[in-house]
Amino acid sequence: MFYYWVSTGLFVGAVYLCVRMVWPSRMPLLWKLCCVGLLVFLASLPALVTHLQWHYSTFFYHDTFYWIMYGALGYMTMLTLAQALRDTAVLARATHRRCTGKACALPPPRRAFFYDMANLGVVGSSLLLTGCGVAQAKGRPEVVEVDVPIANLPKEFDGFTIAQLTDIHIGPTIKRRQCLDVVRQCNDLGADMIAVTGDVVDGHVHALESDLEPLAELSAKYGVYFVTGNHEYYSGAAHWVHLMQTMGHRTLQNEHEMLVRGDARLCIAGVHDVQGGWYLENHWTKPDKALEHTGRRDATIMLAHHPSSIHEVCQYNVDLQLSGHTHGGQYFPGNLLARFTQGYVAGLYRHQGSWLYVSRGTGYWGPPIRLGVPPEMTLITLRRATVA
């Protein structure tokens, strides 16, 4: 149903582009009709591909169609935004002329020429931005190093490192090779532990299991920990949790693990995604349950896919929550929407007495595009902060 709504939104954008760009141009009528048909076809792709997926799941060009669909979605977004910016500039100039009483000095043929050139500029710049976005999305994740000061952290855990992977979204456009590259890059960091904070997949186990096999090679001295994200639930979270367990990863399902160095105790806890209970009755996020029977906790790290979990997590004396989900907005206007809908978008935040780190994500979702929001792999270092 989601992709049918996406197609509806794209159709509105297609109508806007037809009215503001295609029809007023000086192209021959046949070309105009072809452009209108192309825009309508691109707008219908999300619904079309979804229909093929549900009714012809073994269709040979399944992934190819997804590439076309997501590429079209990304380009249509860029094209619509570029045209909207152009219209805003035209409106501002027209308003200025009206206020000052100045008329346009250009003759109509000249104005029509510049109109067509502006159309070409909008189309070309949108293509260029889409290409740059694909290159950034498919590029090597940026390693972001973050020091987190924790009050009275035992000296035994001062300098303890956590490599965070999140929102890899292995699926139709992210495959085994990219997964393997991520695993090798993560292992090369040599972190003490690895935290995988959800949204590893976009699809079903039977379709993606071989693409996920490299994740079994993730290795750290204190282990690999996994919590579910919302996308695991869209395709059978129980199956994905089981697969991660067979890979040797510790799945924290409202649970915790205690790491011990000497007499110091570092609690690593994890909760289900905030949407989990909508799909599986026993998968509501419960930080209180995750921290039951911990005994003494010198410091506590909570793994929670959705940043909003911090509002409940902070009530339980948690020093740091590691999250993802937002992708940092991925590309404009997603960054603005993420800030409006999520609050915490990317980076390190202080929420009441707890720290919250939100990763931009290691992969991407939907259109294979990132603009100004590169993928990341985070290396968290815990630092002792003495409180007087």
TrEMBL record:
It comes from the Bacteria. GO terms for biological process: lipid A biosynthetic process. Pfam families: Metallophos. The keyword Metal-binding applies. The keyword Signal does not apply. InterPro entries: Calcineurin-like_PHP, Metallo-depent_PP-like, Metallophosphoesterase_sf. GO terms for molecular function: metal ion binding; UDP-2,3-diacylglucosamine hydrolase activity. The chain crosses the membrane at residues 6-23, 30-52, 64-85. Its cofactor is a divalent metal cation. SUPFAM superfamilies: Metallo-dependent phosphatases (SSF56300). One of its GO terms (cellular component) is membrane. Residues 161-328 form the Calcineurin-like phosphoesterase domain. Belongs to the metallophosphoesterase superfamily. This is Calcineurin-like phosphoesterase domain-containing protein. The lineage of its organism: Bacteria, Pseudomonadati, Thermodesulfobacteriota, Desulfovibrionia, Desulfovibrionales.
